[in-house]
Amino acid sequence: MTKLTDTSNPAAVNEYITKLNEPAQSLVKAIRQVILLASDQIGEQIKWNSPSFFYTGHMQAFNAKEYKRDLIVLNLRQKDHLLLIFPTGVTIEDTTGLLEGDYADGRRMVKIFSMEDLEVKQEALQHIIKQWLALIET
Known about the structure:
Distance between the termini: 7 Å
Number of helices: 3
């Protein structure tokens, strides 16, 4: 696959993370690494006021409101966990059981409660990301 765009903005994500308090700051850094290590075709940016991750390669044309390029958006509003929101998670055949929710708009979510929880879920999370990448129409 050829690279379509290099709009990844790690500097903005770094700046966002440095403003977080612990333990959220360390957890977001660790989640970020798990996601980015899944593929070299994942970019990052601040979208919807939060770190988000997207596919950077070439894709067939699609309606922007379908969010096909968006992979994961972090939601840090909960006090006891972080949410990883997969805007098009319904398209992933999740054999891990990690994706939660049954939203009409196709979202699915993964809850991460702590560093230990992330360690337990890391392999399954990377598997889901790779499944999502395999579905991309180039």
